[in-house]
Amino acid sequence: MARIAGVNIPTNKRVLIGLQYIHGIGPAKAQEIIEKVGIPVERRVSQLTDHEVLQIREVIDRDYLVEGDLRRDVSMNIKRLMDLGCYRGLRHRRGLPVRGQRTHTNARTRKGPAKPIAGKKK
């Protein structure tokens, strides 16, 4: 089992798919990494040599922001917006949708379960 950036990569999947288990690496970045290292697309994780795994690990450490560092960076950006008191920061602080979605109906993922309002029955 290959361990890259603190994540166990599934052994029976193709390298392109396995790399996407790392937070911060999607299909495009996984394809880029494979091309940089020079691994065939159809190769499985179990077929990788130790040298290839080491090369992948080095490319990711050198060129990409992944896992804990990425999560920390994102949370610091959100904290900065909240400290500034800008519109996006206020929306984050109140737990409402940030990007202009409607909230009269919907938005239950951000707002949480509906709260009943007393005296509304008729």
Automatic annotation (TrEMBL):
<dbReference type="GO" id="GO:0006412">
    <property type="term" value="P:translation"/>
</dbReference>
<dbReference type="GO" id="GO:0019843">
    <property type="term" value="F:rRNA binding"/>
</dbReference>
<dbReference type="InterPro" id="IPR019980">
    <property type="entry name" value="Ribosomal_uS13_bac-type"/>
</dbReference>
<dbReference type="GO" id="GO:0015935">
    <property type="term" value="C:small ribosomal subunit"/>
</dbReference>
<comment type="similarity">
    <text>Belongs to the universal ribosomal protein uS13 family.</text>
</comment>
<dbReference type="InterPro" id="IPR001892">
    <property type="entry name" value="Ribosomal_uS13"/>
</dbReference>
<protein>
    <recommendedName>
        <fullName>Small ribosomal subunit protein uS13</fullName>
    </recommendedName>
</protein>
<dbReference type="GO" id="GO:0000049">
    <property type="term" value="F:tRNA binding"/>
</dbReference>
<keyword id="KW-0699">rRNA-binding</keyword>
<dbReference type="GO" id="GO:0005829">
    <property type="term" value="C:cytosol"/>
</dbReference>
<dbReference type="InterPro" id="IPR018269">
    <property type="entry name" value="Ribosomal_uS13_CS"/>
</dbReference>
<keyword id="KW-0694">RNA-binding</keyword>
<dbReference type="Pfam" id="PF00416">
    <property type="entry name" value="Ribosomal_S13"/>
</dbReference>
<keyword id="KW-0689">Ribosomal protein</keyword>
<dbReference type="GO" id="GO:0003735">
    <property type="term" value="F:structural constituent of ribosome"/>
</dbReference>
<keyword id="KW-0687">Ribonucleoprotein</keyword>
<comment type="subunit">
    <text>Part of the 30S ribosomal subunit. Forms a loose heterodimer with protein S19. Forms two bridges to the 50S subunit in the 70S ribosome.</text>
</comment>
<dbReference type="InterPro" id="IPR027437">
    <property type="entry name" value="Rbsml_uS13_C"/>
</dbReference>
<dbReference type="InterPro" id="IPR010979">
    <property type="entry name" value="Ribosomal_uS13-like_H2TH"/>
</dbReference>
<comment type="function">
    <text>Located at the top of the head of the 30S subunit, it contacts several helices of the 16S rRNA. In the 70S ribosome it contacts the 23S rRNA (bridge B1a) and protein L5 of the 50S subunit (bridge B1b), connecting the 2 subunits; these bridges are implicated in subunit movement. Contacts the tRNAs in the A and P-sites.</text>
</comment>
<feature type="region of interest" description="Disordered">
    <location>
        <begin position="95"/>
        <end position="122"/>
    </location>
</feature>
<keyword id="KW-0820">tRNA-binding</keyword>
